[in-house]
Amino acid sequence: MSFDFDPLDWSESNSMSQRRVVVTGLGTLSPLALDTPGTWDAILAGKSGVGEITRFDASDFSTKIAAEVSGFDPEGIIDKKEVKKLDLFSQYALYAGQEAWDNAGLSADAIDAHRTGCILGVGLGGLFQIEKYHEAYMKSGPRRISPFFIPAMISNLGPGNLAIRFGLKGVNYTTTSACASATHAIGESLRMIRDGIQDVMITGGSESTVTPLGIGGFCSMKALSTRNDDPTKASRPFDKDRDGFVLGEGAAILVLESLEHAEARGANILAEVAGYGFSCDAYHITAPSADGEGAINCMKMALEDASLSPEDVTYVNAHGTSTEANDQTETLAIKQVFGPWANEGLLVSSTKSMTGHLLGAAGALEGALVVKAIETGVVPPTINLDTPDDGLDLDYVPHTARETEVKAAISNSFGFGGTNATVAFKKFS
Known about the structure:
Blueprint: H1 9-14, E1 21-29, H2 36-44, E2 51-52, E3 65-66, H3 80-83, H4 88-103, E4 116-121, H5 127-140, H6 149-153, H7 157-166, E5 172-175, H8 181-194, E6 200-207, H9 212-220, E7 250-258, H10 259-264, E8 271-280, H11 293-305, E9 315-317, H12 324-338, H13 341-344, E10 347-349, H14 352-355, H15 362-376, E11 378-379, E12 402-403, E13 408-415, E14 419-426
Parallel strand pairs: 4-5, 4-6, 9-10, 9-13
Antiparallel strand pairs: 1-7, 1-8, 2-3, 6-7, 8-14, 11-12, 13-14
């Protein structure tokens, strides 16, 4: 099956005015570690961040496991008086954002505040706050609802709090597109810089929904793994014995700059953001189109936008959720887009096998890991891939990370409602 689709008329028409965009900073807070070096080391070691849920009593739930952030202490970054005013997703965004800001070597003197913005992907926002104050209201009435409830809960306070911290006076908003939220945020940030609207963008995503409603809602959909007796083996993308995804949480922040801005201040350039693709299946509220049309068009758009041929791409960080619908459809789409190269040299892996699924923040963490793969020349593995399902015959880098030069790579994110986003990165030269 093939699709006659020319996704990039707008790219060609705008190419004369576009600026190159580079990554100069990374910050991550994940179920594996509280910073980027620790997360990357754990990824290369094939470590799983999945365990029993500790945040609440999950004994009555069919799923009792998740990929939680462990050992997090916000008071190292956030004033103690402010912590109670922030939902966890905002705390996570600030924590990872500070690492990214420092990693990029940014300061107030290094930016024009009005040409520096922040776009973050947040899928669900402050579920903790909603549950907490609903319970308070039911027990004691409306007077128990905090004046900080709404500011803590709404998703745009993720980027809003980062703007307040760093004095960013440019564009500021949240993209909310389910599991594609953060990838859309990175892509829209790329366009802001390319088009000359901003010089620097703080982007990525943050999410924290390991709550009774978060777990319970996905349990009711029968979307989560119930491998409660063996949590570290529960997330197993592309494997015949998978039984659903594992809910994760965390944040990842990338600093993007125009090449001119980065070079003028002597920044360390980690990679180039080369292309962005987006599409919609227009098919079903939760299931992807079985023919993979949306994913195909999305990846094609990103490759054409980046001026990359299929053979230029070393690595695909797959959406790879550990569900039959995604794994089959995404594999089909990759084969359609990359043709013979899909089986001849392309490496594909799902880091969700280790981190779980961070929902709205997934694309940010996975984008950061793609940057690390380009920077270090190591492709992350897909752990728990013991028996590939029928028809899943790509090189999914099973079990062990692989050393190879990564000249270009893409990161896929597909969300409920049929929303799709792909970002292409390449080695800076």
